[in-house]
Design brief:
homodimer, TIM Barrel, Alpha-d-glucuronidase, C-terminal Domain, 20 helices, about 15% strand, globular, GH (chains A, B), Alpha-glucuronidase (chains A, B)
Chain lengths: ~650, ~650
């Protein structure tokens, strides 16, 4: 195991392509990448890159009116043809052929046009250059160290970064932010005197069509520039940023832009100067615009020093309250990056109302591949179905557009690190791949995407392996939901590291994360009539659906309503019995997945199999701990026995 | 403020002595210390150290049959006379005169003999040589860095250690263990190639009669000696330790001995080799005996990986179960060091049953000055009355001996660090002083000891300051108890750092620390009849007293019994109303103490006053947080409203 072939795109995935005669027409750096890929495959599988004569595959840059990342694919008369208007589209076309496998050279089909539905498909790396005393090298990182940074500097050997760029191109990702949105002192300097390290990374990612972005601190003019203010309307500040952008682009001509977490969880921002977030974002957009860059401005702004005694403040409301009034005020080069839910990447949240409330703003939806609250890559939790649900949500009901149609961009917090398997849980690779493909086409069927990932990762897998992988992954998100916090209420995790259960772990905290369980009932009243009014942040039909406990979907009930334990769900079960039942079911499902995986031992490379098997041991242990703590907590509190008489401690 | 006079023994404390003519007879290093002290005082206050002629004070080493640390004091015909059989006793006599102040030179009184009731009065420093990634420089340290270690080595400047030795001598402490009982890799080597650093510290402490001890790892023969085993019955192991002891004594001729935490919280021990703790301790005692050293073997042994679901295992039982059967098996040079309670330094615990169960074992009682669970030197919590209660407890009832009489030694986990005030909370100095004086005389009235501390720390304090300090300190332990975990049940702290409330923080943990609160009641059934049987580890009358909820003292009720919230205490209140009332009372008392302190602003040196005032802000904030979290938790769980209708969130 060389640590590079342990993901999709092992050499075998190129077998059908590598055995053919391929003609490549066009020039430019990304065409060079295409040429190298094909040549390497042919070397191994006996095919040839031809300069003329007959061929099975034509990869051609033409001026066929295609967009920057588009490609076409057709097969006629025994020849498969891919065209694109530049090398970037051609590279995507090449990987399309690889995904098709033998099928790419079978039969015939008319010209298909493939284009990404979103302009930008980005991974945000929460990587620190210097190891942070609390958060370590990668904040919320569960896959080893950083791919980019080591011992306070950019790595010396970028072979792994190169391989990463290739994996990303193969699933359609075209942008990476290389450092943590919580920008500490050392990392701040990447913007100025240490930009050379960013440029070195950008050079390695560029041949795969991946542009490099940088997280910056809003206070940079003060902490780096020595100015007395970072006021976004102050001319000296604007000029400082403009000059900083010029320097960055001199080093990285295709630099993507800045990512900013401002006025959030202790990070500085425009509020300090009495300015709006549009003022802040627009200033940075103005600095970047001359060079073709954009600023990603995160909407994750809330009061993280809330008083748990204060039931009028609702963290879920915060992003909408802060940003919806600013719709139309953001510059063209400012992207508002919105977490998919109103809280923080819980296993179940409603879709953020911000996504339906800002039609005149360029929106990016942010999801979290790293699994901070969904098992931290120790539990298998394939998030494809969850992301798909989010992207399919229609804020104005069935007749309106989906989130996938409203979003101009998709962003994920990356789950990759220098682990030999890229991700701490080898099966978590599927999250990275699925994210890229859903970002390309938000209405894709996630189970079909999973098929792609299986096909690319385990070329010529026998049916038993394909079925086994589906059995282990398809329902894993819902399994995880079953044994953790129930019915959308969220949190209930141990504080700080967020792994493992603690039902009251965030109940009396300043973080705005409460379930309000007492001896009679549980849940947060976010209705407009009697609660915090959060439900009214949605348009109809959702505001009406969520407003009433009678129409609110079961899986979100406790997010929107405080109900008695005896409240009957639409499933016909009471809330308390649902809590008990799903916990037992969740553990049983985790145990079953472990058994299924054990049965695949003869079909999976031993190190791969062993790592996953080891994670399943921890998952089953963890699931039982969740089951027992949650059940004991609610039995002690409600006094209601399990209807089926199972053991609750 | 020079950082050295901010404790007892500022120069002014020597005023009455320094104005006199003093004759000193005797020789030896500690007599030299006495001579220096007197000379320095005279320089400042105009007195004189005379060689003959008339004098007001005679300090004399005689062969009057006194024990090693004893001294006499008398006043007759205008002359005060202190005698001792050596310099150590004479030094204690000198500090006795300083404590008496002007009274030492007023009137007359017959010869009094002063002798310590205990042989050894020790401070254990939980200091790491190298900063530990989780625990920092001082484990559970709330007073800055280590007095001894800095940046991975012994400090270069020992002026502060010298001043520390002097403070310790003045309150009667005669031993210090200079490193953490959790012995990490770097610290292990203090025993061997780094013993020179220990010797340097010992040299500085020696003139104050303080002997130096070292915490060692039981695995030393393996990790340092390269042996394949640390089996205490293996001849090669025994010889390794004997050789190690010889090396230590070559460097530190008056070395005190080893301190060992074995088979506890992950530290290695004799259980690994199927040996008993007596086997382990006796091996080390044998190595030390030829040189006059002792081993302090901690009785803090329990299963810290308990399953919270398992109600048959009771951590409180562990020390007795492990050690009581070994009574009589420990060598003369082995001291069993027993925490005062069965758990871990909670604000209220019963006295450890081990202390009444091992008459044939040399016992040391261990208390914790550092306040890990009692406010971490951010809350004022003078522990004198608590320690006094422990020492006054009579395991066999009124006719039997007290713990203070049973204990041959007293040990405290030190609360001192390199903070300019020595302790993080300046008033926590009183804990250090009180410990020393109670160790000297366990039946001393702690409030009189506090008077001493006030007199020495604030010489010629006006009555208003003396009264104010008593008002703030006298009841502070019970105030702290009132707003934290109720009725002896303990814990309810945030995990890891142990500061601040989390009612369920240790409820589903592996640490054996549970309260079992449900909607009907709370507490741990430790009775013999229906519970874990812990109550039966006591002799009569206590086993009977604790066995029944009807006779168990209120303040320990939930430690011994699980009772309904409506259970009526001997105070006449129900348990739930007691919880509410004491929380409100505790906060009111903390607020009152803050006011009292504010009123002393004109009487206390500004930096001193300000530091304490700042701590009171945090204490009041923290007390309110405790009150509100505990009350909300139990209101939600019990559903019983406060009888007085006060606000519970």
């Amino acid at each position: 195991m060389n640590g590079f072939d342990t993901a999709w795109l092992p050499p075998e995935a190129f077998g059908p392509l590598g055995a053919r005669r391929t003609l490549i027409r066009g020039s430019g750096p990304l065409v060079g990448t295409v040429r190298d890929e094909v040549a390497r495959a042919c070397e191994r599988f006996g095919g040839e890159v031809v300069r003329d004569g007959s061929y099975d595959l034509l990869l051609e840059v033409t001026d066929g009116g295609l967009g920057a990342e588009e490609f076409t694919c057709a097969r006629e008369g025994g020849t498969t043809t891919v065209t694109a208007s530049n090398g970037h589209g051609l590279l995507y076309g090449l990987f399309h052929v690889v995904r098709l496998g033998a099928q790419a050279f079978t039969g015939g089909w008319p010209r298909e046009v493939h284009r990404p539905a979103t302009e930008l498909r980005m991974l945000d790396h929460w990587d620190n250059v210097a190891v942070h005393p609390v958060m370590g090298q990668v904040e919320r990182g569960y896959a080893g160290g950083s791919l980019f940074w080591r011992e306070g500097r950019a790595r010396e050997d970028f072979a792994r970064v190169r391989a990463y760029g290739r994996l990303l191109a193969a699933c359609g990702i075209n942008a990476v932010c290389v450092n943590n949105v919580n920008v500490h002192a050392v990392e701040a300097r990447l913007l100025t005197d240490r930009i050379g390290e960013v440029a070195a990374i950008a050079d390695v990612l560029r041949p795969y069509g991946v542009r490099t972005h940088l997280a910056v601190t809003f206070a940079a003019p003060v902490v780096l520039g020595g100015l007395s203010t970072a006021d976004p309307l102050e001319p000296a500040v604007r000029e400082w940023w403009a000059a900083a952008a010029r320097t960055v682009y001199a080093a990285v001509p295709d630099f993507g832009g800045f990512v900013v977490k401002a006025d959030s969880e202790g990070q500085p921002g425009p509020f300090t100067y009495g300015r709006s977030h549009a003022d802040g974002a627009n200033m940075l957009a103005a600095a970047l615009a001359p060079h073709g860059g954009t600023v990603h401005w995160r909407a994750f702004v809330y009061d993280h020093r809330q008083d748990w005694r204060d039931r009028t403040t609702d963290r879920a409301r915060a992003a909408y309250d802060h940003f919806a009034p600013l719709d139309g005020e953001f510059a063209a080069g400012a992207v508002l990056q919105v977490k998919h839910g109103p809280m923080d990447f819980q296993v179940r949240e409603p879709v953020s109302p911000v996504l339906g409330a800002m039609p005149r703003t360029r929106l990016a939806v942010e999801v979290q591949a790293t699994q901070e609250y969904t098992g931290q890559q120790r539990h298998v939790c394939w998030l494809g179905p969850m992301w798909s649900e989010v992207l399919g949500f229609r804020p104005e009901g069935e007749s309106g557009p989906s989130v996938g149609e409203l979003a101009r961009e998709l962003v994920a917090v990356s789950n990759a690190g220098d682990d030999p398997f890229w991700t701490g849980h080898p099966l978590a690779q599927a999250n990275l791949y699925t994210f890229g493909r859903l970002a390309w086409r938000p209405d894709a069927d996630p189970y079909r995407v999973l098929d792609e990932w299986i096909g690319l990762t385990f070329p010529s897998a026998p049916a038993r392996l394909v079925e086994g992988l589906h059995a282990v992954l398809d329902g894993s998100w819902r399994t995880y939901e079953k044994y953790t916090a129930p019915l959308g209420v969220g949190f209930m995790v141990q504080s700080g590291h967020h792994y493992g259960p603690s039902v009251d772990g965030y109940e009396y905290s300043p973080w705005g994360t409460y379930h309000f369980a007492d001896r009679d009932g549980i849940g947060v009243d976010r209705s407009a009539a009697t609660g915090t009014g959060y439900a009214a942040q949605y348009a109809e039909p959702w505001s009406g659906v969520y407003e009433s406990a009678g129409t609110c979907p079961d899986e979100l009930l406790l997010f929107f309503h405080h109900v008695p334990y005896g409240h009957v769900l639409s499933s016909g079960r009471t809330v308390i019995q649902h809590i008990y039942d799903t916990r037992f079911d969740g553990v049983a499902e985790a145990e079953k997945a472990r058994r299924v995986w054990a049965g695949l031992v003869d079909l999976v490379e031993p190190a791969w199999h062993a790592r996953v098997a080891e994670r399943f041991e921890e998952q089953v242990r963890g699931a039982r701990e969740w089951r027992d703590q949650v059940n004991s907590y609610f039995l002690r509190k409600s006094g209601v026995p399990d209807a089926h008489g199972r053991l609750i401690h």
